[in-house]
Amino acid sequence: MTLETLNTAIAEARRFIVRAEAAKCRIQKDEYWAMGCAETATAKRSSMDLTRALAELRKGGWSRD
């Protein structure tokens, strides 16, 4: 783990939360959300990016780099 990978994971987590909240609002307001919408698609994409950032975070040992 490096400071850079930790910062990346934090940024991706924040990005995911924003996108997930937007998807939640759309789901609550739109009865047709299950047919697909931009908000759920971006939430899914940001969840994949967060998964990759967390996997990178778990690799290797600690480093200050």
Mind explaining what this structure looks like?
By secondary structure, the protein is mostly helical. It has one domain (3-58). It is 74% helix and 0% strand. It contains 2 helices and no strands. Helix 1 runs antiparallel to helix 2. The protein is elongated and about 50 Å long.
Summary tags:
74% helix, mainly alpha
How many E strands? Answer: 0
Strand content: under 5%
Task: Give the overall pLDDT as a whole number.
Answer: 91
Major sheet description: none
The assigned structural class equals mainly alpha
Total number of distinct structural domains: 1
What is the N-to-C order of secondary-structure elements (H for helix, E for strand)? HH
List unreliable stretches of 5+ residues: none
Task: Work out the helix count.
Answer: 2
Q: Per the principal axes of the C-alpha atoms, what is the gross shape?
A: elongated
Q: Give the CA-CA distance, first to last residue.
A: 9 Å
Helix content: over 70%
Radius of gyration: 15 Å
Give the secondary structure arrangement, pairings included.
Blueprint: H1 3-29, H2 38-58
Helix pairs in contact: 1-2
What's this entry about, in short?
The chain has 65 residues and is mainly α.
